[in-house]
Amino acid sequence: MLDSASPWTPLSPSSRRVALEVLVHGPLARTELARRLDLSTASLTRITKPLVDSGVLREVPETTARSSGRPLQPLDVDPSRQQFVGIKLTGFRAYGVLTDLRANILATCTREITSQVPADVAQVLTDVVVDLSAEHAPSAVGVGLGGVVRDFTLVRRAPFLHWRDIDLGRALSERTHLPVAVSNDLDALMEAEHWFGDGRDVHNFAALTIGAGVGGGLVIHDRLVTGPDSGLGLLGHFPLDPLGPVCGEGHRGCADALLTTDAIHSQVSMLLGRPVAYDEVLDLAAAGDPTAERIVGGAAHAFGTLIAAVANIAQPERIILTGEGIRLARVSEQSLLAGITQARQPEASPLDLRILDDDPTLWARGAAAVAIQRAVLSELPRF
């Protein structure tokens, strides 16, 4: 159930709209806030006064000096007023973070997953919440995992855990006595970047991830694009090279066959005649080893082709690149850019690419961001 002490629960739609704008884009001067929301000064004053009186918003000092005139006294939220737990769940580990209201990380915690039995996993996640709640009482918990999730609680499919139709949200909420929001991990990452990261200042952006799989997300007109097949990893089967290797599903030259960490280190290991881990492959390529350089360069070129395809179809203002395999984009940057150039119309606008170095806490922060969103919007599942 939603914490009755939450400052967001009693807000009217108009008050919530104002507070949300400040949360995501603040601090904001009242004139700027009125302009953004197309409100008159009188209407904004009427809405913001009770928000300030109740502590949802507060006046803060100006960040830039003014030559004359009355101080603007921008409005902002107090990020420390609420804390949230976010957990990135993998097949073998749970990475937890405690964040404030703006998804700034305050503490971290890691626990091993030794059993994939749902009740055992729920207990490990509970232990993470308890560890992170030692000094702060969180308002809600978010969990992100690779798979298909429905209604922010039901895990319909999570192959790495061998799960189908597991109500993880209910199980964790019953143990922690906190609201829980479960989501696909890439969707969670997208929402964190949308509200608090590299997507905060644009209305349309895409994210592409490479690692154990290939993933993609899209925000259009400030809304995450989802559908009945979200979480299935469909972008991994986008065709890139008709002469390339075959993926596990039998697709020749698809993104999964060319860009996953397993695909890359397996190809190099076979050619060198010895096991070579993914990071070693990149080290060899960076040092000029011809075999590693050829495979890594080809993968980076294919990644550029995929980036260009997303840009050509969706026309996002920005593209974010991340994932545990994203170092590929730095080691073979020229090949990646060549792949983009080859697949783009010469007169097309330059792409705004942002590379986020992978870190488990990045994904855990995404899960926390979903919990923050659901709390702010009063849409957390109730059990």
TrEMBL record:
Annotated Pfam families: ROK
PANTHER family registered for this protein in UniProt: BIFUNCTIONAL UDP-N-ACETYLGLUCOSAMINE 2-EPIMERASE_N-ACETYLMANNOSAMINE KINASE (PTHR18964:SF149), ROK (REPRESSOR, ORF, KINASE) FAMILY (PTHR18964)
Family recorded in the similarity comment: Belongs to the ROK (NagC/XylR) family.
Name this protein carries in UniProt: ROK family transcriptional regulator
Organism: Oerskovia douganii
